[in-house]
Task: inverse folding
């Protein structure tokens, strides 16, 4: 997917001004945010589980090479095929070639953020394979020609009327808007036929178990199960960070993932795939392929200060907790991963130069850190990325601040470091600002300061400092 | 194209090392547990399921109800067969498919359904799984009104039914028909996910891990349209759990 991070401001402004989308974003809060809070408080050892989840992920990422080696070996031992892809292009090519080679006609896609990195459905359709998203939210998004709005609820910004127009060609403006159940049943009918004839599936991976070469899928709708039951070929795509070492680690990881994602104790379906179908089974994929993708994740791994972001299990809790995400929405972030975790992952993977607004779009309130089931310290990393945009010297692409901007702040720093310099600077600022002020306030300033005054007033710096005034009052009183 | 070796080499390098090093024992993850402990954990899980069967059934019934199962408790086989016939009749079922779970041959379900005039098919494995055969079996699952299975394990913590697809237990049986009925016997209820994965791990270490596993906790659902939860999207719209306790033989 082509990154559009540079449009953050305009996209955010557009969303904030859209009343319907603002209402939809409320569902994120009332549904998912409250759901997680309730689920966590109903789980007596919740903090213990988070600590354990973090320990499992910290350990795995610190030995990712070892566990990737183990995982791929085990998948092959149980009759699967592993493909390592350096980037989205390679992964896409592998899957397309596979489809060509096996004379595939219909591909069903289950929800996968990694496949969004490849724009897989779009590309497969262009290559002549009927490729259909089967998660209801993703299906709606595909019909609309858009990208997911939320990690868990891709179509959260669509109203029932929007959905009716997308699903039903005959729906016209005057018609009664069907309720959610009617619309869901309509989609069920449409997708049933697709499931029955699919000969290949592409799914994501929630967890990949190193010791057994298993993959685990978490779904509520059942499309993940269809994908692992009907077609003769199953391709699972994953970011290289999705590993957990042992089968037994799954109980902890599933508990924290599902509660954090939707507030459920467990999702309707959890599917564990340990290889292609066994010889005595009638249904099930004869071929099982796992595509393990890097696509910029090495940059996160390389940087000890950003490595923690690879602990992410994509539950979406930080999005739901974020006061900024809940206003600017998912599309503003300009790539696959929105919200607080996206503000770290997206700039590093797609380039910080265009994405400086992402780490800046946070009040550092810490709600994301508090919500994260594996305790990722997101605010710390947002600060780290802000530091990189200002000072990142290792990569000129990272340092996006202009020379003048840096010069101003350097001067500011010098000015703040001595009382005499401070007094002198304040006096100078007063003289400079006074012509623009009305009754002690600056309401409209020339650029570049107009960027501030467009939405705020700036008080005129006092002509005489507090220290000066105190000193002179003291003299008078004596 | 990245081959495995060079891909992993890059990862090693990014971690600041030159070779893959085996991690030191770290009990945050169960991978470092020894086989004997894994075996003991699994044995304990099975023993608990039997010794606490009655209380685990009560918990299971409660959490299955929370998860959206329609739960029916019965204490004999005859009645459970009648319950199943009743559900099939309620749905006007013309075609019913059942798995080869032994519980479904123990209860007189075939006879009861035949008496009610419903067409019952059993998904039993035929060794010649030709393409035609597979297509036929798929079509049967998509066309069935009701799918009936046993339960390999249940999980009291979450109201979950665990099924291992295998010969006679098709993957689609509990998924494609709009109604799924699962029949649970006492002794198969585990306390929590911990016990289930302890058993899976022990099976794995003994080379007995099944090809796949499905955890089913209620009817298929979605909240993708305006955050409204709707039951029944790609899987069953309705799921029934028949709980047989203290069977009288």
Result:
């Amino acid at each position: 997917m082509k990154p559009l991070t540079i449009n953050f401001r305009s996209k955010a402004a557009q969303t904030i001004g859209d009343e319907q989308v603002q209402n939809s974003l409320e569902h994120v809060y009332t549904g998912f945010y409250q759901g997680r809070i309730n689920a966590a408080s109903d789980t007596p050892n919740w903090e213990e589980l988070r600590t354990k989840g973090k320990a499992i992920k910290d350990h795995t990422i610190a030995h990712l090479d070892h566990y990737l080696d183990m995982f791929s070996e085990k998948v092959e031992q149980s009759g699967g095929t592993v493909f390592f892809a350096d980037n989205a292009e390679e992964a896409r090519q592998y899957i397309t070639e596979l489809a060509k080679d096996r004379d595939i006609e219909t591909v069903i896609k289950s929800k996968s953020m990694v496949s969004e990195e490849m724009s897989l459905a779009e590309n497969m359709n262009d290559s002549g394979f009927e490729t259909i998203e089967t998660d209801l939210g993703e299906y709606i998004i595909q019909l609309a020609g858009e990208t997911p709005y939320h990690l868990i609820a891709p179509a959260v910004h669509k109203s029932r009327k929007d959905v009716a127009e997308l699903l039903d060609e005959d729906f016209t403006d005057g018609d009664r808007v069907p309720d959610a159940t009617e619309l869901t049943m309509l989609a069920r009918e449409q997708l049933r036929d697709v499931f029955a004839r699919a000969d290949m599936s592409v799914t994501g991976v929630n967890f990949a178990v190193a010791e057994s070469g298993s993959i685990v899928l978490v779904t509520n709708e059942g499309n993940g199960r269809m994908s692992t039951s009907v077609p003769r070929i199953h391709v699972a795509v994953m970011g290289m960070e999705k590993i957990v070492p042992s089968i037994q680690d799954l109980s902890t990881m599933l508990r924290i993932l599902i509660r954090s994602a939707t507030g459920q104790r467990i999702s309707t379906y959890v599917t564990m795939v340990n290889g292609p179908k066994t010889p005595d089974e009638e249904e099930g994929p004869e071929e099982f392929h796992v595509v393990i993708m890097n696509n910029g994740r090495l940059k996160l791994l390389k940087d000890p200060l950003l490595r923690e972001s690879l602990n992410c299990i994509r539950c979406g809790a930080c999005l739901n907790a974020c006061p900024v995400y809940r206003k600017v929405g998912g599309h503003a972030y300009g790539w696959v991963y929105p919200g607080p975790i996206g503000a770290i992952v997206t700039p590093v993977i797609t380039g910080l130069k265009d994405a400086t607004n992402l780490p800046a779009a946070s009040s550092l309130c810490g709600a994301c850190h508090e919500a994260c089931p594996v305790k990722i310290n997101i605010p710390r990393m947002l600060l780290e990325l802000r530091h990189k945009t200002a000072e990142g010297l290792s990569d000129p692409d990272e340092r996006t601040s202009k020379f003048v901007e840096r010069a101003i702040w350097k001067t500011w720093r010098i000015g703040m470091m001595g009382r005499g310099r401070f007094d002198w600077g304040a006096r100078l600022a007063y003289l400079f600002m006074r012509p623009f002020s009305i009754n002690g306030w600056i309401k409209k300033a020339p650029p570049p300061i107009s960027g501030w005054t467009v939405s705020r007033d700036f008080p005129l710096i006092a002509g005489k400092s507090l220290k000066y005034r105190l000193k002179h009052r003291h003299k008078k009183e004596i | 194209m990245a081959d495995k070796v060079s891909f992993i080499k890059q990862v090693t390098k990014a971690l600041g090392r030159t070779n893959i090093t085996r991690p030191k024992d770290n009990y945050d993850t169960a991978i470092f547990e020894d086989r004997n402990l894994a075996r003991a954990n699994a044995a304990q899980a099975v023993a608990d399921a039997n010794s606490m069967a009655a209380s685990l059934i009560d918990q299971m019934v409660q959490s299955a109800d929370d998860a959206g199962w329609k739960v029916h408790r019965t204490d004999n086989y005859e009645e459970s067969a009648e319950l199943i016939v009743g559900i099939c009749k309620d749905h006007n079922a013309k075609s019913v498919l059942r798995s080869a779970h032994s519980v479904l041959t123990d209860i007189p379900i075939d006879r009861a359904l035949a008496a009610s005039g419903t067409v019952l098919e059993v998904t039993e494995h035929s060794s010649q799984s030709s393409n035609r055969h597979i297509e036929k079996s798929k079509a049967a699952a998509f066309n069935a009104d009701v799918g009936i299975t046993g339960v390999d394990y249940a999980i009291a913590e979450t109201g979950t039914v665990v099924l291992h697809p295998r010969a006679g237990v098709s993957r689609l049986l509990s998924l494609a028909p709009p109604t799924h009925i699962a029949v649970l016997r006492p002794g198969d209820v585990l306390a929590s996910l911990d016990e289930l994965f302890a058993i899976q791990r022990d099976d794995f270490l003994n080379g007995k891990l099944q090809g796949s596993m499905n955890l089913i906790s209620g009817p298929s659902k979605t909240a993708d349209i305006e955050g409204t939860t709707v039951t029944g999207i790609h899987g069953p719209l309705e799921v029934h759990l028949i709980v047989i306790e203290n069977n009288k033989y």
Chain A has three domains: 1-42+316-400, 44-297, 403-477. The first helix of chain A runs from residue 8 to 16. Chain A has 23 helices and twelve strands.
